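Q&A log
Question type: sequence-to-structure
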Amino acid sequence: MAKFSSTLIEEASGKLGSNLVMRKTAKGQILAKAPKKASTPRRSEKQANTRLQMANLLANYRLYSGKLLEAFESKTAGVSDANMYVSVNWGYQPVYMTRQMRIQGCCVLAENMICTGSIAPIGYELVEGKLVSDLNLGSLVIGEDTTVGQLTAAVLQNNDLWEEGDQLTCFIGTQLMGSDGLPRCTMKAEKVILNLDDESKLWDVAGADGFSTKDGYLAGGVVLANMGMAWVHSRNNGSQTKVSTQRLVVVSDVLAQYQTYAAMRAAADSYGGINSKAVYLNPGSNLTDVGNMVNGGASQSGSQSGTNTNGSNTGSQNGGGNGGSDNGSGGGDDGGGYFTGD
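Response status: OK
Response body:
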């Protein structure tokens, strides 16, 4: 800031051009910068709708605490499991969190793909609020005295494509609401390695919540209410882990609240808003690249399981994909940002 006492500007005051203002003080005239104009939001609604998914996707991935390593068979060298998780879930039933929620460690439990691979998916459906798989256990009724060996025998005798030494994992997520009214989650995982000679009590190895029976099939032992569940079939195939393609099934009255248009706008506003009047081809619109969109979402290229809550389905479908451009898929602020920085 520079001070002036020249008679030429002694009586001057107010705005000088578009970038400077003059103000008078007891010690003379002072030339000062004008206040900055309010910045124009940089992104369109389409871009916001796509990019604001990142915060909750990464929050969900962190729930698994490293248990999804090698969960994506198609991962190439130099690509992380976190990037694969984001890629296969991008554009699928987006969940939007505000910047403040992200900073405070919030998480909305979502129906995301948790692994993709070459082993046939485990199908499941909701029956009276409990998740029931298509894994046939024959006459076995799992109870307190059931051993791992007995479960192994039932699986191998009644299902094709299973082998001794395979692993059966159950993921169970719980949606919580903190005392501050914000959503947070927990995730637990329990696994059983199929072994005909293992006389360990099954429920000492993995709990009844994920390893029970319903009409001769493997089922969850808990009614899903603000919870999510999935089973995964995996196998050690020499140098590579083989997995089934599975999606977490979520029953929650919280999830839908953060999938609405209003939730998207609230999240966008927390990062500076949406430029709803900008014209991409107008060089004065200050609109950044909106990326390549398909039906308002990201271009899709990934494998997703066909499991759903309306019936058993072991098929597969295309999904996932990569988001729009503009400094990568994540923006700033640990990948959760709608902008590339604060």
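Response note: The CA atoms of residues 4 and 29 lie 5 Å apart.
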